[in-house]
Amino acid sequence: MMKILLPIDGSPNSLKAAKHVVNRFLENRDIEVHLLHVRQPFSQHIARFSSARNRAAYHREAAEKALAPARDLLRLYGVPHTDHVELGDRAGTINRIAEELGVSEIVMGTARKNSLTRLLEDSVTYRVLEDAKVPVEIVAGEAVSTMERFGVPAGVGAMLALLFIAAD
Predict the structure, then answer these.
(1) Would you say 121 and 156 are in contact if contact means Cβ atoms under 8 Å apart?
(2) Largest CA distance in the chain
(3) Domain locations along the chain
(4) Strand 81-87 vs strand 2-7: parallel, antiparallel, or unpaired?
(5) CA torsion sign, 4 to 8 to 12 to 13?
(6) Main-chain phi, psi angles of 4, to 5 degrees
(7) Distance (Å, rounded) from C-alpha 97 to C-alpha 34?
(8) Are 124 and 37 in contact (CB under 8 A)?
(9) How many angstroms separate the CA atoms of 35 and 82, rounded?
(10) What is the pLDDT of residues 100-159, one digit of tens each?
């Protein structure tokens, strides 16, 4: 049986990856899916203002909200799956869980971004690809928004202009 790790962050792109996995299941029913939602833990500065119980309840509720659409889709088509929720660095946790579960591959959705945006941001997808010990299949999602397409380069340009002004 092929085991697939499907990281879900609640975005339309991760749901598109879930649809891709469903299509693969319909072609070959010898697939078992492990849905994984990774939550970033609160910083110590924020965590000290809430109890461990409240933080756990918050993470549980947010994970349920993120996993629900993908879980419902898999149930609709009868895809056998297991849910996993973890706290930690997203890319590192995805790779660690893939190794612990002994999955055959990781299937993840990602947004289409321009080269400058990919260069400037710390991409979870890139870090998973860099460190994964199993094949990673990337399902291209929707293109980035107009704001991100023009806002990031404009922000970089503004930052460079400020640096030049400060240097004078």
Answers:
(1) no
(2) 66
(3) 2-167
(4) unpaired
(5) negative
(6) -120, 130
(7) 10
(8) no
(9) 6
(10) 999 999 999 987 665 555 555 668 888 898 999 999 999 987 765 555 555 555 556 666
Tokens of residue 52, six digits: 């461990």
* CATH of the domain spanning 2-167: 3.40.50.620
Evaluated on CA atoms 158, 121, 40, 75, the torsion sign reads positive
One-letter identity of residue 2: M
- pLDDT given for residue 9 in this prediction: 94
| Tokens coding 115 | 């080269």
Residue indicated by tokens 């549980």: 60
pLDDT at 123 (0 to 100): 81
Residue closest to 137 by CA, chosen among 40, 16, 10, 38: 16
C-beta of residue 155 within 8 angstroms of C-beta of residue 121: no
Residue by residue, what is the 3-state secondary structure of 103-115?
CCEEEEEEEECCH
Whether 26 contacts 119, CB under 8 Å: no
Work out whether the CA dihedral 129, 131, 132, 133 comes out positive or negative: positive
- Residue 36 three-state SS: strand
